[in-house]
Design brief:
The complex is a heterotrimer of chains A (about 300), B (about 425) and C (about 280). Chain B is of the alpha/beta class. Chain B has helices at about 1-20, 40-55, 70-80, 95-100, 110, 115-120, 125, 150-155, 165-180, 190-215, 225-240, 250-260, 275-280, 325-335, 335-345, 360-375, 380-385, 385-400, 405-420, and strands spanning about 30-35, 60-65, 85-90, 130, 135, 135-145, 145-150, 180-185, 265-270, 290-295, 310-320, 375-380. In chain B, strands 1, 2, 3, 6, 11 and 12 form a six-stranded mixed beta sheet that branches. Chain B has a four-stranded mixed beta sheet with strand order 8-9-7-10. Chain B is globular, with a radius of gyration of 24 Å. The N and C termini of chain B lie far apart (about 80 Å). Helices cover about 75% and strands about 0% of the residues of chain C. Chain C contains 13 helices and no strands. The chains are: A mainly alpha (about 300), B alpha/beta (about 425), C mainly alpha (about 280). Chains in contact: A-B, A-C, B-C. At the A-C interface, helix 1, helix 3, helix 4, helix 5 and helix 7 of A face helix 1, helix 2, helix 4, helix 5 and helix 6 of C.
């Protein structure tokens, strides 16, 4: 059969390009960014002002960062209790064999995901516009005399308003993943359950959902990681302001790091985001592996 | 006969050799970045570039035209990578100082000190593009922030002239509100429009010393009572409903649109206001002749003079690797003829002496008059200060307006940002 | 009796489900509808009547954009196409090779390599943007298409390998054995069996990479200086800054910018689900 060196060559050929590209353009820059985090550096000129973990200390003490982290957690939770169940319910309905217009629904629900965040932000800015947005029209029509809320101008409502846009954009993506997982479950399973006298609800709950679990776990993983990293939609809809009410960790990094020419500080935020995602990822994988081991 | 021929050939040869050696003909490329995305500005710059390359065929000018925000992002990264463009848009002040400190700009003092070019503009405006005694760029537009108001709307509530006293302005605001008109359009979401208001109020209360101390880090800095009182006044204005619904999320363009569509009575803005107001309106003509400019009112018992100016403008900076041709191009761009042409095309307030002839608009003439007569000129704070404290000023003024920070706390935060940036 | 009540229960349940779906559809489509129609309205009508049909039906904004009188739509579209096609091709080739190795070949450290690639899922592009820019500049790739294609591909590698590997894992061992019997080595197996079988997942990953590349704004902004290389999102941003209050123009531009992406998506959409179905989502 193949000897060791030709095996090695084959592997080098197969893995090489991906490894090189990935290492060069992703891993190395990230390590460099981590290096910057130990300095106070405005990005111009040489890197000389070593500060050790001082940037991290400042970061953890900053109440705006606390707000950003809290907002990220809120986005995670809202995604988990609204977006995923919504996607799941839709998938369970649409993923059924005889559901009419299934293709229509699947296409249109996935469509917002295809749009760029910039476009999404602009569209929703228009909808929320205090002078001629949809919201204003809605109120003018259904509740004349009541002042329409200026959702993006009010610190209390900004995050909620943006969350609507986020759910609008991403729930279709999750729904598609779940439908894919559903279609993997053969129809015979349902038939068998029906013969055994189970109602639809019981079938869904007791049989389909557990089988769908691996797919659901993946969907949830992407949702949570995405919630920690969300930037473009928030930035396009007000940059996290007014008064940082919709600030997230990445907008914070961009604003207080890049824009203020505090590259070292911004890099410290970046490293923090990475560590949070890493910790979650390790923890999550361990949990899902454990539970999957039990069902197998 | 033969001798003549030989002589002729020799002369020809010498001339040919001479022109080969002439460095002025060596091909040179100049990178020129500007933010004139509007049709008038774009056409103007292209015209200047074309005229210059006609005069200097060996120079190729590579244009990069970016919209304001995209320009800021991209310039930041490019500067951080250490390869600045040759000629690029700049607002001077603290940002320019940062670049100069990092050695990213070319010192062009020798071209401007005591030269014709240097004498063509006032020392004050040159200073905005200088740092530590050295010149790093040139302005072409320097104006003042003034109130821009709708004469017709004011007349409707009984005002034939703009208030010269701040208390009177507050009364006017009340009358406008009662008449169902938005008194002051404000782009609170963009933050910097509000910053201008706060700066002016503080200056009118505490006089020019208060601003000078704050930016130089002397005295009480930003904790001076004048700044805190200015914050209080802003809060009062918000409570009185002086600004439009949703102003905290509004952009500058929203603000301009309100004025341009005749829905708001006034805005506090720089010399580009008429242009943007027109452009942002549904009709594209704005409120036309009803638009008028007026200086920021004085405040009773305040130390600031009504002639004191908060303002700024536009200019170009020179990158550290720029060839002489780049400096020459900038000189060309800021000559009297081109400066006047820009004033005529896009309504800038020209900096070059004699270029006022290009000013067609009465309002622009008014603003130019204000700039020329002033004894005290303060570049807008978010340009004058370095980026980190500048950001802090903008953020905290917005916090004052939103009511999430008291003026006292906001000022403390600003001063802290100034201190930690030293 | 039991059958009858089950039926009517079923009908009731079905009604609820369809209603739910149609309501959801309404909510999802409304912003798109407004965006689409908005470009056809005059500013005046846009401000007073976002829902209604444009009267008059004003195609001026669209024609301005399409004829190049305003904005640089076709140039930006071409650039977006070049960059996206380049990114997709490179990504798929590179990732098929790598995923194949990670799925079908046994070697020491295989799981380690997989985890290495998966780390890429954990940070957004913004994190590494300055060092990445420096990298691109030092390789003299600024203002070139490769300067965007290479890094974009690199950032798509984790997700693409994840999906491809999952799918490849699901290919039955018998097929591989059959190939071995026929005298094909691993490469032969890859070329003659795996790739033909993988059309669904290749389409899926292709579409996901397309979406990411098509919508990427920040990286092209940094890499391209030349206006003629700007991609569509850059066009949208620049356009928006200039015409901030010309909402009908902006909406027209947004709609036009959406159209190519939507067309490509609709054409390939059946593959997304099919592709994700092939066991790719597991593992």
């Amino acid at each position: 059969m193949k000897n060791k060196s030709s095996q090695f060559l084959l592997l080098a050929f197969l893995l090489g390009p991906a490894l090189i590209l990935f290492t060069f353009f992703v891993v190395i820059p990230v390590f460099q960014a981590a290096f910057f985090s130990l300095f106070k550096w405005n990005g111009l000129g040489p890197i000389v002002d070593f500060r050790g973990i001082n940037n991290f200390k400042l970061l953890f003490a900053d109440e705006v960062f606390h707000k950003a982290l809290t907002n990220n957690l809120i986005i995670v939770i809202v995604s988990l209790i609204i977006e995923i169940p919504l996607a799941l319910y839709a998938a369970l309905i649409i993923g059924r064999k005889n559901f009419k217009f299934a293709i229509l629904f699947r296409t249109f629900f996935f469509l917002p995901y295809v749009l760029s965040e910039v476009i999404t932000g602009l569209l929703w800015q228009f909808i929320y516009h205090p002078q001629y947005g949809l919201v204003k029209m809605f109120f003018a029509f259904f509740a004349p005399g009541v002042d329409a809320p200026t959702l993006l101008g009010n610190p209390k409502t900004v995050l909620g308003a943006i969350m609507v846009a986020i759910i609008w954009k991403y729930f279709g993506f999750h729904m598609s993943i779940l439908i894919a997982g559903l279609q993997d479950i053969s129809e015979e399973v349902r038939e068998a359950a029906k013969i055994d006298g189970a109602s639809e609800g019981q079938t869904t709950r007791r049989i389909i959902l557990p089988l769908l679990r691996p797919t659901l776990m993946i969907s949830i993983f992407f949702s949570i990681i995405g919630s920690f990293q969300v930037f473009d939609v928030i930035w396009a809809m007000g940059k996290g302001d007014p008064v940082n009410s919709a600030e997230t960790m990445v907008t914070y990094m961009y604003k207080f790091g890049m824009q203020r020419f505090n590259i070292g500080y911004g890099s410290a935020v970046a490293v923090t985001i990475f560590l949070i995602c890493l910790t979650f990822s390790v923890f999550y994988n361990r949990q899902t592996l454990k539970s999957e081991g039990m069902t197998k | 006969m033969n001798l003549r021929k030989i002589g002729f050939v020799i002369v020809l040869a010498i001339l040919t050799l001479a022109s080969c050696k002439n460095p002025a003909n060596k091909p040179v490329t100049v990178n020129f970045w500007h933010i004139g995305t509007a049709a008038t500005d774009k056409a103007y710059y292209q015209g200047v570039v074309d005229a210059y390359t006609k005069l200097h065929p060996n120079v190729t000018i590579q244009l990069t035209i970016l919209e304001n925000e995209a320009f800021k992002s991209k310039l930041a990264t490019v500067m951080q990578s250490g390869t600045p463009p040759d000629v690029f848009h700049s607002w001077g002040g603290g940002m320019l100082a940062e670049y100069a400190k990092a050695g990213l700009l070319r010192d062009i003092t020798k071209f401007t000190k005591d030269t014709d070019w240097g004498k063509s503009m006032a020392a004050g405006v040159w200073n905005v593009y200088a740092y530590d005694g050295k010149q790093y760029g040139a302005p072409f537009d320097m104006g003042a922030i003034t109130f821009w108001y709708n004469k017709d709307i004011l007349a409707k509530v009984g005002y034939t002239a703009f208030p010269t006293d701040f208390d009177d302005l507050v009364v006017l605001v009340g009358k406008l509100k009662a008449a169902g008109i938005v008194p002051i359009a404000l782009g609170g979401g963009d933050k910097w429009p509000a910053m201008h208001m706060w700066t002016y109020i503080a200056e009118r209360i505490g006089g020019k010393e208060v601003l000078q101390n704050a930016v130089q880090g002397k005295g009480n800095g930003f904790n001076d009572p004048a700044f805190i009182k200015a914050g209080d006044i802003l809060v009062q204005l918000v409570k009185a409903g002086a600004f439009q619904d949703g102003f905290l999320g509004a952009t500058y363009n929203d603000e301009a649109a309100l004025v341009g569509n005749g829905k708001a009575a006034m805005e506090l803005m720089g010399q580009w206001a008429p242009n943007v107001e027109k452009d942002s309106s549904v009709s594209k003509t704005g409120i036309g002749a009803a638009l008028s400019a007026a200086p920021f009112p004085s405040i009773k018992d305040g130390l600031g003079k009504v002639t004191d100016v908060v303002g700024g403008g536009n200019g170009m900076a020179i990158g550290k690797n720029a060839p002489d041709a780049a400096v020459d191009f900038l000189k060309f761009l800021t000559n009297q003829e081109n400066n006047a042409a820009y004033a005529a095309a896009a309504g800038i307030i020209p900096t070059v002496k004699g270029a006022e002839t290009g000013i067609k608009d009465d309002n622009a003439k008014l603003v130019k008059g204000i700039v020329d007569k002033t004894e005290f000129f303060q570049l807008y704070l978010d340009q004058f200060l370095a980026p980190a404290p500048a950001g802090a000023v903008n953020d905290n003024v917005q916090a004052i307006l939103a009511g999430t920070k008291s003026p006292t706390d906001a000022c403390k935060a600003i001063q802290a940002a100034v201190d930690s940036n030293k | 009796m039991k059958t009858q009540s089950y039926s009517s229960q079923k009908i009731f349940a079905r009604t609820i489900q369809y209603t739910f779906c149609f309501l959801l559809l309404l909510i999802v489509v409304t912003p798109l509808y407004i965006g689409l129609l908005g470009g056809f309205k005059t500013m005046g009508q846009l401000m007073t009547d976002p829902f209604g049909f444009p009267i008059p039906f004003n195609i001026a904004k669209y024609t301005d954009l399409l004829t190049g009188k305003q904005g640089t739509f076709w140039v930006a579209l071409t650039n977006s196409l070049i960059v996206s096609v380049g990114t997709i091709s490179l990504t798929i080739v590179v990732c098929v090779l790598a995923a194949f190795a990670l799925a079908r070949m046994k070697f020491r450290g295989r799981e380690l390599f997989k985890s290495y690639f998966m780390l890429g899922l954990l940070f957004p592009l913004a994190v590494a943007i300055l060092p990445l820019y420096l990298q691109i500049r030092n390789m003299h790739l600024l203002d070139s298409y490769m300067g965007v294609i290479l890094p974009q591909c690199a950032f798509q590698i984790p997700m693409t390998i994840l999906l491809l590997r999952g799918f490849f894992l699901g290919i039955p061992q018998d097929l591989e054995d059959a190939c071995a019997i026929d005298g094909y080595g691993p490469m032969g197996f890859l070329m003659h069996m795996v790739i033909p079988l993988s059309t669904p997942i290749l389409s899926t990953t292709g579409i996901l990479v397309l979406v990411a590349s098509w919508n990427n704004f920040f990286l092209p902004l940094l890499v391209f200086n030349d206006v003629n290389k700007f991609t569509l999102p850059m066009g949208v941003m620049a356009f928006q800054g200039q015409h901030m209050s010309d909402w009908n123009m902006i909406l027209a531009y947004l709609t036009l910018a959406m159209v190519p992406a939507i067309i490509l998506f609709v054409a390939g959409q059946k593959y997304i689900v099919a592709g994700l179905t092939g066991g790719a989502v597991k593992g």
